[in-house]
Amino acid sequence: MPRIPLTWLAEHVSLPTGASALQVATDLSRVGLEEEAIIGAQVTGPLVVGRVLDLAGEPQKNGKTINWVRVDVGPEHDEAADDPEDPQPGQERPSRGIVCGAHNFERGDLVVVSLPGTVLPGDFAIAARKTYGHTSDGMICSGQELGLGEDPSGEDGIIVLGRGHAEGVTAEPGDDAIALLGLADEIVEINVTPDRGYCFSMRGVAREYSHATGAAFTDPVTAVDLAAPHGTGVDVQLRDDAPVRDRPGCSRFVALEVRGVDPSAQTPRWMARRLTQAGMRPISLIVDVTNYVMLDFGQPLHAYDAEQVVAPIVVRRARRGEKLTTLDDVTRTLDPEDLLITDSDGGEGARVLGIAGVMGGEDTEVSGATKDIILEAATFEPVTVARSARRHRLPSEASKRFERGVDPRLPLVAASRAAQLIARFGGGEIAARSTDEGAVQEPDAIRLDVGDAERVVGIEYSPAQVRGALERIGCTVDDGGEGVLVVTPPSWRPDLTLREDLVEEIARLVGYEKIPSVLPTAPGGRGLTVAQRARRHAHRALVEAGLTEVASYPFVASGVFDTLRYEAGDVRRDAVRLLNPLADDEPLLRTSLLQSLLPVARRNLGRGEESVAIFQVATTSIARGGEARAPIPPAAQRPTDAELEELLGALPAQTRALGAVVGGASGPDSWQGEPAAWGWADAFDLAHRAAAAVGARLEVRQVESAPFHPGRAGELRITGADGEPAVIGHAGELHPAVVKEFALPARASALELDLEALIASAPGVVRAAPVSTYPLAKEDFAFVVEDSVPASAVEAAIVVGIGDLAEDVHLFDVYTGDQIGDGKKSLAFAVRLRSSEGTLSAEEIGEARARCIATVGTAVGGVLRA
């Protein structure tokens, strides 16, 4: 996120007197540059210039020597708060006494003094305090304490504004040091979208501020004296034999030498301060100048130690196996797609100097002994730089700009500006000639109908507004006849390639606020769809049962299928593989909700939860198979119905599923004792709750299915549209191996069902049943059946046998054991009978009971248990 100091911005565009960071941020937001943060003044309170009147070194018991300093801070501030016992040797005028541990100053020096009441960066408040036997009435400040970074002089100590009474020093004791050092500067941090790379510079932001306010903009590029024409400078060869998208990796390369630079030359304080305000750490004069010019113009630069470079400089693709130790001291294996800067004619013995547009190598790094440098300013292809930066996980300030597009006309200007600054502050001599290989690629013209902006945006734009907006952003606009404009974008806007890009600029420059917000009117009486209401009912049913809804990413690892014990031919192994996954270890889309829900349960338990009761409603995807290929229809026309059908047929089979995981205690402890633990029966109960909430019915049949425990799980079935049963999910206790793998509570259970299919199985119209006013009759039945007979089949037989008198049938007990024999089970049902015509007699109840027993025996072979 670029940081824009207002004083720096004001050098390129006219800011109103007293303009605040908030106002500037508001103005920039009108043209699409959103405020990320506003950084206020770094220092507040009485920070003043002081002159050292006297200092006395005082050794301490800890081996440290401190200075007891008398400082003149001007008549307004020389009201000492010292102890009366503190000596003022030989001083006739008032002063303040301050304890200071630095030793890089002497009597007569001008220093920066923070008086009591000053607040330094980091919310560090200054107050008079007793220390080392004195009352220190303030603090003499270093550059780091003021947020200015390290002292450019390289000394470890306080800031010395002037030595003695040297000529040229205009500051006097008592002067405001905040204004003198620029510490009152406000900074606006903005968010730049990927298509606005030119705004990673003061030049670009100043131009945008001019667009927003109409303030006068002065392009800093026009004030630079360009280096001499190329011809005899550094030998540079462009040899990209594997361009990306038929575009060379480097279209222009400028090299400019500066010789005889003073290695001890320091970065001027104003430049170091600006770099710090912009979020960069001052390092050395040469490096700081390249960074300063990059922040100002937007053109990344790189400086080589000329004595370490063997001409010619060659720009080429990497050879397989080549390595480079970059400036971050990491040795990297290069990829053949990487564009490199090399020397020694690019032969087998050539050294790699850096990854183009990303980072240089340590072999030719400028150091404290560098006297001769070669400045590089180039135009690199954005895709090439972006791929290298991501491939090596090496984001840099340079790559951030190159991958968004840099003005191809800047290299010679930026190199000239940097060379001039280095020569000015480092005493070097700029070479007589520069090297400028390659050419500037001119942008393609775009044809725009004058009425296109109105048709796309929906509001009226006059021809003058259309032409004026495009010319304001730097476009050349020519008349193409018949209401058509021929627009050539400026060199710094590589993002303008289509008619729609120009329309967006017109809307932005005329003003987004001019576009009315018109919301569509919702037709009355429709409300939620049946499916939407059903999903909400299912959601509410599980929440009311005590579960918590969670959200999990749909991405899973390929190993999850083995972890969940899927068989080799299981359809749930047919997952969609992503070409560009968020994480390399999770490249697949889930085929089952439990694949992502179980890791969420493990994470919650690992963070202190003692039980788990979670659910999620989300989509799952099953791949169509290797033979499914989506066609690529032409963009010039709408796809045909056949093409659309083929496209849809190649998409993964998706459905909205409901999944839940429960385990551990079902509630908190109380005086009544420990609560019951969640179990397999609860998983089935939750499935029935969800079904009842949407108006559907589920049948349960015992099966073995991963990842569930054999014998403690079942499939969930509905009656399909064809009247045949259809499996839509499973529920039960999880397999012990799965429980162990995910560190779940013992006997944790789960369920998963196809929610869309469940909702579709519900009747479209629910008819209200009449309520009988006659009394209820109760009968209980216990039938012994084979283990393979589902309880739902017995229930259905009971309903058929009893007929219309059956008001409710409920299974309340399942028993297996020696009393009924192997391979059999006893199912006990509570049956409620009621007639709508009168009170049931004993004979009618007896007849209904007999019909029930006979029907169960005929339908499922059930025998009434004695």
What is the CATH superfamily label of the largest domain? Answer: Bira Bifunctional Protein, Domain 2
CATH topology of the largest domain: BirA Bifunctional Protein, domain 2
- CATH arch. level architecture of the largest domain: 2-Layer Sandwich
Q: What does the largest sheet look like?
A: 7 strands, mixed
Could you give the topology of this structure?
Blueprint: E1 3-5, H1 6-9, H2 21-29, E2 34-39, E3 47-59, E4 65-72, E5 96-100, E6 110-114, E7 119-120, E8 124-125, E9 129-131, E10 134-136, E11 139-140, E12 160-162, H3 177-181, E13 187-191, H4 202-213, E14 236-239, E15 250-259, H5 269-277, H6 285-297, E16 302-305, E17 313-317, E18 323-325, E19 331-333, E20 339-342, E21 352-355, E22 359-360, E23 373-380, H7 382-391, H8 397-402, H9 411-426, E24 429-430, E25 435-438, E26 446-449, H10 452-457, H11 463-472, E27 476-481, E28 484-488, H12 499-510, H13 530-544, E29 548-549, E30 555-556, H14 560-563, E31 588-589, H15 594-606, E32 612-622, H16 641-650, E33 653-663, H17 680-694, E34 699-702, E35 708-719, E36 725-734, H18 736-741, E37 749-754, H19 755-761, E38 777-786, H20 791-802, E39 806-815, E40 824-833, H21 842-860, E41 863-864
Parallel strand pairs: 14-17, 29-32
Antiparallel strand pairs: 1-13, 2-13, 3-4, 3-6, 4-5, 6-11, 6-12, 7-8, 9-10, 15-23, 15-24, 15-25, 16-23, 17-20, 18-19, 20-21, 21-22, 26-28, 27-28, 30-31, 32-33, 33-37, 34-35, 35-36, 36-37, 38-40, 38-41, 39-40
